[in-house]
């Protein structure tokens, strides 16, 4: 079986090849209901069509963006008349420009038309918005009414009746309904009304029950996925509204909003550039062109759906939702759905194999019963006499064979994966993890290595300046009101002014006031910590800073590890400020400020002392930054790039970022679970090592390396280092990408990697599971990730791993349970048909059993919450057999017990229970049916844990499981006691009820005895961290 599955049903969990997707689709056989079974499977034909549509639309956008822009250069006439007048509706609403006019100008990049409206200020005036204060919140509904909502038209969700219709498309159910209708007609003709219609109506009612339960389950899943999909697209945007900076949902954005953009952001709507520095836009998602576009006052048009590649800026929103090119592109495309997960594909393979076996049994059962019936007629010399009653008997044989096929083809196996994943995704959403791709939740259970960032993930991301080295002296910063005064009194006014200017000017954060007048800092935690430190000083430094004009900005990025600005000084001339990674900025300096704020030569001895200070701060787990400046010569102030050398060092700042509570325990949990944790950070190696030791990541025999050293190593050297590598400091995004690639390809690790920056996108895409940070992460990082960690917390990553393992184990439990039911149902009916010529389990009864093991079984077992014990076993390796030795042991053992019990009842039940009289056969068949169902009920409890004897642990905490158990038992009582006319059962005595429940309950001690039988296991080598791996996957005994 495993060989067949590997050959035909093996796909990569991330970016599977088209060939692999086609291969397993071709190998699937005997699908009862394709519409339902493949509902959560990618439609390759639609996907290909979507690709063609996307290319066509992108081509049109390219023409609009480039050809029209070129053509406009040759048009002298102004395309808009000076006496342009808005519509009456727009004027009544208080605005002076139509949405169609805004849309047309933005689409065509019509700069002449823009000038006719007096440019950006004219647009703002006509949209009744202040470029400084933004939109007034009370005005938002009116703007949405006139200019539209920032939402793309979505396909309406399928109503409940469509799910009912899909469930009715089951081929075997359709055949059974036809048989039932014929049975009703023939029955009434032979037995009269109403006796003749009971058998057929019973089948129809049971089919309707199965369809309704199935449709309800599918509909609820669909609602869950719809909610999750909406959450995935919900981006928080920074805007200025009501004179204050605030975050709003992308769905609440309106025309006239002032949006703040920075590196990695998605442009949320069409708009016009107001102000900014070095703003570069990647328009490839819209136009297909990879060449970045520079946006400024001369080229002010910004398009929705594009990404900020570099720089920062502010934009005025001019079109939203379906009035943007991006909105129209999204509505014309249907991506054909997400790729199916490896477990879904594998279980489609299992269903195919079992389906073939089931078909063979169904055909054999029908042939055996029909042959016996014909032979009996021949022996009674009635072969030439056929009646309607004989036809009804043959029809009943056919219905039983078809029902065996219903039970035998486990259509619910692949769908159980979807159910389990939907349940897990919903729970993870509550635990602050947004799963963007279904397969990621499943794959996370196999993760053997986590490459994590330090800042914000292992630490709190609430930073505070606690130390500063200035004028050859280190000073502690207490954080009180007197701190500013103390430092101010210890250095000259000139030096303090230079220090504060270097902080207030060289930043991408803003000091803003909220609605209540409270000062807030909008920006990254590092920038916020520096600004909070600068705000400790009293005086008019902020107003002085605002008077200076910023000429150029080079924003911080993870490659250069620094940020620089050039400002025009009030007295003439220019000054460059630079800050960033301590050793990089120190290397750019050849001077240092003295106590008077004057520059003097930086000696080698001073450089060594400063390096020791930096290392000392870092050893205390402080993030260190250097601040520097340079007075530029007039000839250099007009250069395109800000200088890279000849700076004057101002100060070294030490910033404390405490380790998150619970991280050390979470790391310990990972090690117990066989998951190696590696820290990959851009920080100083001494800071990184200090934090790693505090978190329990760096051990005595672990290796910590810097990015430049890692890059210089040969592949052979890296193969020796990587098994013990625990910390990589001063790393570039490409270092992270290289590490992930080596771990996956050379060491066959299943790698989860965290990332927050735009440059982390390649590593997130390369990893088996890309984890983007929800708070600190850019939209580019999130788009390339598989899971978004909403609270940026390492503990949440461990929770995702636990749920991933839970999904895998839960599906194994369900498969074990369903295969046991399959084996017993098939063998019971087949053997009975061969020996006695009739099947003890009727069509209606088998349909009920099918619902117990399919929809209800999946609900009970596939939605079990995870336990802490899951994190005390190693991850499931890539090539582990899905159906393990432990599962086969349990399946075979329980099947043998149930077959023995049902066999004894079938052939000796009358004598054992002293059943006599005309209804003895009906009573016996009902007893067999009741015993069979209770065997499955108790075996379902057994399946809660495939290895541990105590299967009741946590059972009463799982309300879904308990609800399914109670519902199953209640309905079984109703079927036996009250629906006998339709289900072909009779009411049982109290003694027979006790007997059937007792025979089912014996499954529990049988299960406990089976778990004492040892199964083969494999030895695993000891890991570098001293953790000895346990047997792989669920083979843990």
UniProtKB/TrEMBL annotation:
* GO CC annotations, alphabetized: plasma membrane
As one GO molecular function, the record gives:
calmodulin binding
Q: Which reaction does it catalyse?
A: Ca(2+)(in) + ATP + H2O = Ca(2+)(out) + ADP + phosphate + H(+)
PROSITE patterns given in the database record? ATPASE_E1_E2 (PS00154)
Q: Which InterPro entries match?
A: ATPase_P-typ_cation-transptr_C, ATPase_P-typ_cation-transptr_N, ATPase_P-typ_cyto_dom_N, ATPase_P-typ_P_site, ATPase_P-typ_TM_dom_sf, ATPase_P-typ_transduc_dom_A_sf, ATPase_P-type_domA, Ca_ATPase_N_dom
What function does this protein fulfil? Catalyzes the hydrolysis of ATP coupled with the transport of calcium.
Chief location bin: membrane
Q: Name one Pfam family in it.
A: CaATP_NAI
Can you tell me where the transmembrane regions are? 160-190, 196-216, 353-375, 395-424, 959-980, 992-1013
Where in or outside the cell it occurs: the entry states: Membrane
* This enzyme's EC code(s): 7.2.2.10
Q: In what way does this protein cross or attach to the membrane?
A: Multi-pass membrane protein
Q: Which UniProt keywords apply?
A: ATP-binding, Calcium, Calcium transport, Calmodulin-binding, Ion transport, Magnesium, Membrane, Metal-binding, Nucleotide-binding, Translocase, Transmembrane, Transmembrane helix, Transport
Instruction: Tell me which family the UniProt entry assigns to this protein.
Output: Belongs to the cation transport ATPase (P-type) (TC 3.A.3) family. Type IIB subfamily.
Q: Where is the Cation-transporting P-type ATPase N-terminal domain?
A: 114-188
The name on file for this protein is Calcium-transporting ATPase
